[in-house]
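Something for you to look into today, if you have time. Could you write out one complete protein record for me, on any chain you like? Leave the record below and I will have a look.
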Amino acid sequence: MSTDSKAFSRRSFLYAGAFGAAASLAPISAAHGATETYPFTPNSPLVDAFVARRGGPIGTGGKVAVAFRCDHHLNKFESRLLPLHRKYGIPVTIAALSQMFTVETGANGSTNLSFPRLQALALENGLEIANHGATHTDAATPQRLREEIVYSRNALSTALPKLPVELFIPAGVGGTQYLGFEGGKSQSSFQKYLAGRLITQQHAMSTGYVPGYWPMTGNPLDSMGNIHVGIENADYARRGPEFIAAARKQGRGVCFMYHPSLVDDTDLQAIEGFFAWCARERDAGRLEILTTTGLMMSSFTTSSRHDLLSVSASFKAGWNGWNGAAANWARLTDSGVTYARRGSISTALYKDVPTGVYAGSARQLRISMRSTTGLRVKIEVFDPASPGSFNAAKTITLSPAAGFQQVHQYIILPLTGTPRVRVRITPVSGGELHVQEPRLLAA
């Protein structure tokens, strides 16, 4: 672990401590009025594409939204943290260095992975990739700034062609701190300093060190430069519900961050406990879990959220594009809930949809299912023309129950090469199965 990384981690804890006492933080917009000398100037074409990819604001209907971020050190991420994200169905944004496989060596490095492997993991698990610079070192000249911000983004985009690199996450560094940029302490930093201007020119959005919980207005520009809460320390991970409760009081969201290299066994246990709590809150309808860019698009005051699969509420109007009748599923309605019921000769239930302008977006496949007998079922999102190029699959064991159970699978729709995806539900053991119409939501 470098000195810069340790300083970055300590800074995240300091900000997390400030959050704990910040239940009455003023809205971010109040700190950035029209009298600023350096008003924030976005790259409008990049921001427009960013919004279109997600289908507009991601409404949570009054629920607080959270996101999780992992800062490089991918060896331990893959072996220790990724299994927890999979277990609890929680997406994560990876702050990636374009040269991490060269500069991050040893057990705490990233050399066990490769860019093709990272891209595959991202698509199958909803891992959003953000530019975190080239080497995680200071840039004390304009040329070095371009190497750390511009060239790194170009390198990541080339190495990960199926993933959009829309987000910059400033690295915590010493020295000149990117020629005075200091990670972006205000929205004006992104216009005042060369580093900020380069970030904005090359990326739709960026995080930073602007204090306060995330605004959840549905306008991503309101989230420009927002700070995180560090949970790589067990004490802070255990306090996660407190941070969420404080954000909820303000109608705002929270982004949590960890460095895998700083997570020991005690920390890991606390993080798993927090993940489990978040998953329960989500399934109970009290919380939304999004990617970092999804959190930037979130809106506390609306329920509208783009669904790639359907504009209707249930399996009505001739199955709404699903193959239910041909696959011998029955369509039933009970107590106002419409669902598909598997029969003795049923085959897999599926629907194909074009990705269109939504290619590259993080998506949450959300399905409510129940089984009165118990069974195993496989859910998939894949490229029907080339399953080998993209296939995100998850097998679920449903215990006998009278009520519907939510199942979640987060993915990234490939940016290129997959013009259409298929969502498929396949029982892999005998037993009764009821399925409400799945949703493939912007996340």
User: Anything to note?
Assistant: Residues 310 and 435 are 15 Å apart (CA to CA). The chain is about 30% helix and 25% strand.
